[in-house]
From TrEMBL:
<keyword id="KW-0274">FAD</keyword>
<feature type="domain" description="FAD/NAD(P)-binding">
    <location>
        <begin position="27"/>
        <end position="356"/>
    </location>
</feature>
<keyword id="KW-0520">NAD</keyword>
<feature type="compositionally biased region" description="Basic and acidic residues">
    <location>
        <begin position="469"/>
        <end position="481"/>
    </location>
</feature>
<keyword id="KW-0560">Oxidoreductase</keyword>
<dbReference type="InterPro" id="IPR036188">
    <property type="entry name" value="FAD/NAD-bd_sf"/>
</dbReference>
<dbReference type="GO" id="GO:0003954">
    <property type="term" value="F:NADH dehydrogenase activity"/>
</dbReference>
<keyword id="KW-0285">Flavoprotein</keyword>
<feature type="region of interest" description="Disordered">
    <location>
        <begin position="458"/>
        <end position="481"/>
    </location>
</feature>
<dbReference type="InterPro" id="IPR023753">
    <property type="entry name" value="FAD/NAD-binding_dom"/>
</dbReference>
<feature type="compositionally biased region" description="Polar residues">
    <location>
        <begin position="1"/>
        <end position="18"/>
    </location>
</feature>
<protein>
    <submittedName>
        <fullName>NADH dehydrogenase</fullName>
    </submittedName>
</protein>
<dbReference type="InterPro" id="IPR045024">
    <property type="entry name" value="NDH-2"/>
</dbReference>
<feature type="region of interest" description="Disordered">
    <location>
        <begin position="1"/>
        <end position="24"/>
    </location>
</feature>
<comment type="similarity">
    <text>Belongs to the NADH dehydrogenase family.</text>
</comment>
<dbReference type="Pfam" id="PF07992">
    <property type="entry name" value="Pyr_redox_2"/>
</dbReference>
Amino acid sequence: MPQNDLTSVSPAQNSTSPAPRARKVPRIVVLGGGTVGLYSARRVRKRLGRQDAAIVVVDPRPYMTYAPFLPEVAAGSIDPRNVVAPHRKALKGIDVLQGKATKIDHGAKRIEITPQEGEPYEISYDQLVVGLGSVSRTLPIPGLAEQAIGFKNVEEAVAVRNHVVNRLDVASSTWDPELRKRMLTFTFIGGGFAGIEAIAEAEDMARSAVKQYDSLDVSDLRFVMIEGAGRILPELSEPMALYALEQLKQRGIEFHLSTFLSSCVDGHVVTSTGVEFDSETIVWTAGVKANPVIGESDLPTDKMGRLTVLPTLQVADEDGNVVPDAWGAGDCAAVPDLVNPGKFCPPNAQHAIREAWKLGDNLAAQIKGEALSEYKHKSVGTVASLGLYKGVAELFGTFKFKGFPAWVVHRTYHGGAMPTFNRKLRIFMGWFDQFVMSRETVSLGSIHDPRAEFRAASLPPKQAVAKESTPETKAEPVGKS
Ligand SMILES: Cc1cc2nc3c(=O)[nH]c(=O)nc-3n(C[C@H](O)[C@H](O)[C@H](O)COP(=O)(O)OP(=O)(O)OC[C@H]3O[C@@H](n4cnc5c(N)ncnc54)[C@H](O)[C@@H]3O)c2cc1C
């Protein structure tokens, strides 16, 4: 395995890396360039100059995604490029390695990185920050892996948006009523924050888009939410969650609460309560779990696979003994909630950003030999968008907003939290643009298979005709359209 012990990281030099050299300054390796990774790396760089520490961020993506805006990307209300902060611009004075951390050996202080292409290689570090976030928590449900799509990253949100609009296009020229029904049935699994915002935004967009089709009517659309618990939006108080439920029901969204998905082979949905229907769109938003790379490492984790940390964001074992030189925060860590003793901070961006700031401050303080402080944050509240000009918000446990005011609170809060001034400005300008010229709901046809036409053109004429005339009878999974 190639190893990299150079002071400045250069993957191209890995395979010829000579014997380890002593580093002039400590190297901080940050795993994950998401919310925690980006904000903590920037904070450390603000506190420590290049002469004090080298910082390396490792992520398979070249950008950080602001996930609270993904539902609006799926609704076409925000340009996907505006909800991501490119690492090369946002991480000034910080090295970026594009690749997946595939092995963490904290005992040896080495990380194995697997780039998108090429052989895995190793880098060493003095301080480790783990901000690997979470992955979709799926279940071995027949058909799920083949038919469904997650809703965790910008690629998935764009695919959902394009798929929904594409199904409207295709259904508008389909005369088989059963096929049409299947195309226009959109199923979401999981009624937490991400799921409710996603279905509400997607329905709102489809409702607006359908007006452009003479052969389609809003009543042709069927949006279905399947949720295992007896209520939606557990992050909100019961009356506010009930308000959201009623609003969405009034718009015709069908709710199956206390219900589980049993099967969805070839898009045929079967629920635990015996409901059956066909749906070409199945979006899985039923929860997340800590990134599994952590569970496979020698770092301590709890029963849920989360990194165990102290309120200082230092990694510690179950007895509270600090694991030297390791730090963690965000969705992948069990961060004690000092405002609610005995509980852990919920996995959301509000905490992840503030934990990252505290982690950055403490890591810099440790390197400078200063005292560490503890993370304590009282939740500002919860805001959820339920479509264009609709929302629900609860702030400081006292102030409750519904409808348009809640939507304004949502946009203002998240617009302000979006990293970099450039992105904030682009988002606000995009909203202004839409306000003046209305939302664009055009489908970009076969964007997810741009080579299809070229492949067909390359086939001998007879084969191409045979291929084109083969009727499509099976449900197309999301992302294939
Ligand atoms: C659809 C959706 C809506 C949401 N809405 C809200 C909301 O309204 N309000 C709110 O407060 N929170 C919301 N959240 C939650 C919030 O976005 C997360 O809690 C927050 O982003 C967690 O930050 P993180 O840094 O732990 O993880 P992330 O921001 O997810 O960052 C993890 C990073 O690790 C990278 N990574 C993954 N595997 C590897 C690997 N092997 N090696 C290297 N890098 C890796 C990823 O590419 C990613 O960049 C939402 C989340 C989703 C998915």
